[in-house]
Amino acid sequence: MEEQKKKGFPYIKIIIGLAAAVFIVLVLTGEKTWFSDEPPLQVISDMDNQFKDKAQVGSTFFSDRKSDRDPLPNTFPRGGVQYSLDKSDFDKADSVNGTNPLPASEFVLARGKNRFETMCSPCHNYDGQGNGEVVKRGFQNPPNLRADLTKGKSDALLYHVISSGQNIMPSYADKLSENDRWTVIHYIRQMQAEGVKEVKQAAK
Q1: CA-CA to 144 of 20 to 30 Å: which in 9, 103, 136, 166?
Q2: One digit per residue, pLDDT tens: the chain, 204 residues?
Q3: Which has the closest alpha carbon to 177: 153, 159, 190?
Q4: Maximum CA extent, the chain
Q5: d(CA 131, CA 144)
Q6: pTM of whole model > 0.70?
Q7: Alpha carbon 91 to chain centroid distance?
Q8: Cα separation of 36 and 41, whole Å?
Q9: Which residues contact 141 (CB under 8 A, 6 or more apart)?
Q10: Cα(184)–Cα(38) distance, integer angstroms
């Protein structure tokens, strides 16, 4: 009888061993059962915790205190095309840029809307009237894209402003491809036309 008891299945040891294994796994993975501000124990950190500068966060490493580095002069994205005019070349915009080469199709307008709301709305707002979120926080008002002054500008001139910038507006040539710039202009024209319709409906 005593020999049979000694040869019995070691339930207690197995339960204790499993509990210890689960506890160790929880500790190593950070899924422990108590709260802590300390990072979990990491054998291989995979560079999770490293000294680095994050986008739009100040840096003490560079003299200008910016973590984001400005592109080198006269550089443009891989596969991109450098815009040929300078910011002040307004008189050359019509002859160099010509007319909008893209048809105002449903896809083009949808693409223009997407690019406008992504890149332009922070300043110009979703309605194009220049009261975007950054303006509400003290930034200078950009032009109202639905105003008569903007309506009177040619597509080529609008393309020039998007490509080279104007006043406080920077160039978007490194952020929007040539086709995307033309789609944005199509969408601006659509907003301007809708603005006329809204005025006529309000008058009625």
Answers
A1: 103
A2: 455 555 666 778 888 888 888 878 777 766 665 666 776 677 777 777 777 777 778 888 888 888 888 878 777 667 777 788 888 899 999 999 999 999 999 999 999 999 999 999 999 999 999 999 999 888 888 999 999 999 999 999 999 999 999 988 999 988 999 999 999 999 999 999 987 555 444 334
A3: 159
A4: 108
A5: 8
A6: no
A7: 32
A8: 12
A9: 130, 131, 135
A10: 48
Q: What are phi and psi of 158, to 5 degrees?
A: -60, -40
DSSP, collapsed to helix, strand or coil, labels residue 169 as strand
Locus of tokens 């950190």: 45
* Distance from the Cα of residue 56 to its chain's centroid: 12
Tokens encoding 119: 């890149």
Contact 124, 142 (CB under 8 A): yes
In 3-state terms, what secondary structure has residue 167? coil
Separation of alpha carbons 204 and 198, rounded Å:
10
Amino acid identity, position 62: F
Contacts of 84 (CB under 8 A, 6+ apart): 96
Q: What is the dihedral of CA 123, 125, 127, 130, to 10 degrees?
A: -40
C-alpha span between 145 and 136 (Å, rounded): 17
* Site of tokens 């036309």: 193
| HSE-CB of 132 using CA atoms within 13 angstroms | 21
